[in-house]
TrEMBL record:
<dbReference type="InterPro" id="IPR023353">
    <property type="entry name" value="LemA-like_dom_sf"/>
</dbReference>
<keyword id="KW-1133">Transmembrane helix</keyword>
<keyword id="KW-0812">Transmembrane</keyword>
<keyword id="KW-0472">Membrane</keyword>
<feature type="transmembrane region" description="Helical">
    <location>
        <begin position="6"/>
        <end position="25"/>
    </location>
</feature>
<protein>
    <recommendedName>
        <fullName>LemA family protein</fullName>
    </recommendedName>
</protein>
Length: 180
């Protein structure tokens, strides 16, 4: 009889221990997902700043006509200085401005023929920066998706394992690269 009571107590201690380990594992996973979202956001911000800098470099290169340079410089400046609420709109405007500039007939050929290879270097930098924005946005949105899926789990909602961390939001912009 005494041994049955000890076995029951040990069983419940083991159950509580295993539940504690599982809850701890879920909380750690959720924390890692939130860190992944923050890291991906930092990479996305860096890619967006690099693309805006490349657009400003193209606008200031004197390889474009003044009106086109002004439109491109304005869109790049708006993208760099936009607040959090207007960032997606400003970045989409920059994407559209870049496509409007680069997709002009004979633009690439004319630009690469000017100068001493400066035009080609600026276009390669702009193309690389635009591609990195598209990749960074996809990685960020994937991280957000994974974090949101994890936060929908019953255990995460019942036990406040997310703490006070805000629910991450997707970053949706028009990031189709210009046809360089």
């Amino acid at each position: 009889m005494t041994y049955d009571w000890i076995i029951d107590v040990l069983f419940w201690i083991a159950v509580v221990f295993l539940v504690g380990v599982y809850v701890s594992w879920r909380a750690t996973r959720l924390d890692r997902l939130h860190v992944r979202v923050e890291t991906a956001r930092a990479a996305l911000d860096a890619a967006l700043v690099r693309r805006a800098a490349a657009a400003l470099e193209l606008a200031a290169s004197r390889l474009l006509d003044p009106a086109t340079s002004l439109v491109l410089a304005t869109a790049a400046h708006e993208a760099r200085t936009a607040d959090a609420d207007n960032r997606e709109f400003a970045e989409s405007d920059l994407s559209r401005a870049l496509r409007a500039v680069v997709d002009q007939p004979e633009f690439v050929g004319t630009l690469t023929a000017k100068g001493d290879g400066e035009g080609r270097a600026v276009l390669e930098e702009l193309s690389s920066a635009s591609a990195k924005v598209a990749y960074a946005r996809r990685f960020y949105n994937d991280a957000v998706s994974q974090a949101r899926i994890a936060r929908r789990k019953l255990l995460i909602r019942v036990l406040p394992l997310a703490g006070r961390a805000p629910l991450p939001g997707f970053f949706e912009i028009d990031d189709d690269p210009p046809g360089i």
